[in-house]
Amino acid sequence: MKTGKVFLLFILTLSSSYLVYIQPVNATEDSWKTMAEMPTARSFFEVAAVNGKIYAFGGSGTNTTEEYDPETNTWTTKVSMPTARSGFAVAVFQNKIYVMGGEIVGTGFTGINEVYDPTTDSWETKTSMSTKRDNPVANTVDDKIYVIGGILSPNLPETQLFQT
């Protein structure tokens, strides 16, 4: 397995997050098919795919982690996130799923950075982001995770580089 350093670049912009309902579609067909329902109804959650499975995290102030297997059309409840929250960013790096930032109900914005390993069904807490933010977005490019935007507190620096 290739190892590398994870870099998080924070570019502060004001952005919004929208909940979008998407159903799977076969690229060779022009139709929709309803699949198994998620066990936990919620909004403002995030998803990521690793090794052909889809993982749904948090949302609506919950710390629920669930795995969807498209091959069997089934959902499985996994170990819960250490921190219940919504409005966070997710990105996949080296088959692990990074969950960063968001809002903790009753507490406010957070910079918490937690990593889920689907192979071991376990969580690890990493160094928190230095900027607390709600509704950021993230993606991985060239072995770096970029966290961009979100809703921030006033008087924060414009750009930050974070390395784990």
How many helices in DSSP terms? 0
Within CATH, the superfamily carries the name Kelch-type beta propeller
Name the CATH class.
Mainly Beta
Per CATH, the architecture is: 6 Propeller
* Structural class by sheet pairing and helices: mainly beta
- For the secondary structure, the number of strands is 16
- Cα-atom Rg, whole angstroms? 16 Å
Stated plainly, the CATH topology is called Neuraminidase
Strand content: 35-45%
Strand order of the largest sheet: 13-14-1-16
Helix-strand pattern? EEEEEEEEEEEEEEEE
Describe the structure.
The chain is mainly β. The protein has a single domain, classed as Neuraminidase, CATH 2.120.10.80. The chain is built from no helices and 16 strands. It has strands at residues 7-11, 46-50, 53-57, 65-69, 74-78, 89-93, 96-100, 103-104, 108-109, 113-117, 122-126, 133-134, 137-141, 144-148, 151-152, 159-163. Strands 13-14-1-16 form a four-stranded mixed sheet, with no helix packed on it. β10 (113-117) and β11 form a beta hairpin. It is globular. The protein starts with 6 loop residues before the first strand and ends with a strand. Residues 1-22 and 155-164 have low confidence and may be disordered.
Sequence-ordered SSE layout with sheet pairings:
Elements: E1 7-11, E2 46-50, E3 53-57, E4 65-69, E5 74-78, E6 89-93, E7 96-100, E8 103-104, E9 108-109, E10 113-117, E11 122-126, E12 133-134, E13 137-141, E14 144-148, E15 151-152, E16 159-163
Parallel strand pairs: 1-14
Antiparallel strand pairs: 1-16, 2-3, 3-4, 4-5, 6-7, 7-10, 8-9, 10-11, 12-15, 13-14
